């Protein structure tokens, strides 16, 4: 089990996460308290930002072949 050191940064308490446990490609985390534990979870984009993505062109997937066959699939 890895341990981390706590320190004060201004008026806030901070934790130094050991390199072997660092979040890769994440620069923000959500923090929740669970009893006497504090849980850090990577903050990811929510679906609310989905509408900001550029819409696909009108001919998007025109050349895609139909991979679904009619009828039931037998397992």
UniProtKB/TrEMBL annotation:
<dbReference type="Pfam" id="PF04014">
    <property type="entry name" value="MazE_antitoxin"/>
</dbReference>
<comment type="similarity">
    <text>Belongs to the VapB family.</text>
</comment>
<keyword id="KW-0238">DNA-binding</keyword>
<dbReference type="GO" id="GO:0003677">
    <property type="term" value="F:DNA binding"/>
</dbReference>
<dbReference type="InterPro" id="IPR037914">
    <property type="entry name" value="SpoVT-AbrB_sf"/>
</dbReference>
<dbReference type="InterPro" id="IPR007159">
    <property type="entry name" value="SpoVT-AbrB_dom"/>
</dbReference>
<protein>
    <submittedName>
        <fullName>Virulence-associated protein vagC</fullName>
    </submittedName>
</protein>
<dbReference type="InterPro" id="IPR047976">
    <property type="entry name" value="Anti_VapB2-like"/>
</dbReference>
<dbReference type="InterPro" id="IPR051734">
    <property type="entry name" value="VapB_TA_antitoxins"/>
</dbReference>
<feature type="domain" description="SpoVT-AbrB">
    <location>
        <begin position="4"/>
        <end position="45"/>
    </location>
</feature>
